[in-house]
Amino acid sequence: RLIYTQIIPNMSRRVLGSEVADAAGSENTDDLQRLSRIEAADIPRTAQNTDFANNEALISRTFQQLDQMVGMADVKRALHDLVGAARARWQANGDVLDTIPLQWTFTGSTGTGKSSVAKRLASLLHAFGLINSDRMTQLRMAQTDNNTWSAYEIDKLLRDTMKQAGQGLLFIDLDDVANQHIDIRWLRCKLTSLTAEMPGSYAFVIAVDDKRLAPQPIDMPLSPSVIHFADYSADELMAILVQRLSKHRYTLTDEASTLLGEHIARLCRNKSFGYANARTMKHLYTALTSAAELR
């Protein structure tokens, strides 16, 4: 039905552009046939597989950005393996659709780099020709007034977000409260049906806190690619913070570096309420630079 409603306007625009619009009321058989004949140009275009040779620069640049991120060795390896498999499939038969999934599940605690990696994944999928844009749209499904989501509310929210985005990668961020009240399997099925129904080309990443996901298995066919994001170590968090400070031309004295390392180590050991891995380092960066400016 959706494809039909795209084909007919396309045909109308083509015919009008060929200056035979006045034939709509004509009794001429040839004109009427021309007005009702669907041609190849009228078929709606979807994402097409792309020759890797034309996009190697984009793929290389994306991996450079990914490799500059601290830690996440398993995540980086998974994406490198993905590109390797896609290249092999392309060389074999020129098709990567069966190699690269368009639905992903990222599990892990808050602040472990899920959204940052999703942005790079959008670039890779775009380079592969699987989506028409490398834009990532983030949808955060947080706590509602009655502490639950209805199927109608989720359906409407997804449709509105997809209409607004138009195409690209949709990053669905489920917080701790939402995890308990949204059936992940149902959500995956809903995304599959919406992909077929909505215009445009989409990929999806469902980001969940694995600590809240125990009752719901995630290794199921509807989500063929699951990547786990482990918590950062104290050394990795220190590297993330130093990287952010250096980016904005801040330096640390030896004494400050030692004290900061001890503070971060305590944060990692205790993991008190509000601890959020790299997001905690972002807050710590703000506190440090504010204190330095005030001094």
What this model shows, in words?
- There is one protein chain.
- The N and C termini lie far apart (66 Å).
- This protein is 54% helix and 11% strand.
- The protein has helices at residues 2-17, 29-36, 52-67, 73-93, 114-127, 151-165, 176-181, 184-197, 234-247, 254-270, 278-294, and strands at residues 103-108, 136-141, 168-174, 202-208, 225-229.
- Helix 6 links the parallel strand 2 and strand 3.
- The chain is of the alpha/beta class and 295 residues long.
CA radius of gyration: 24 Å
The chain-level mean pLDDT equals 79
Number of strands: 5
Distance between the termini: 66 Å
Quick structural overview:
This protein is α/β, with parallel strands linked by helices and 295 residues long. It is 54% helix and 11% strand. Helix 9 packs across helix 11.
List keywords for this structure.
11% strand; 295 residues; 11 helices; elongated; 5-stranded parallel sheet; 54% helix; alpha/beta
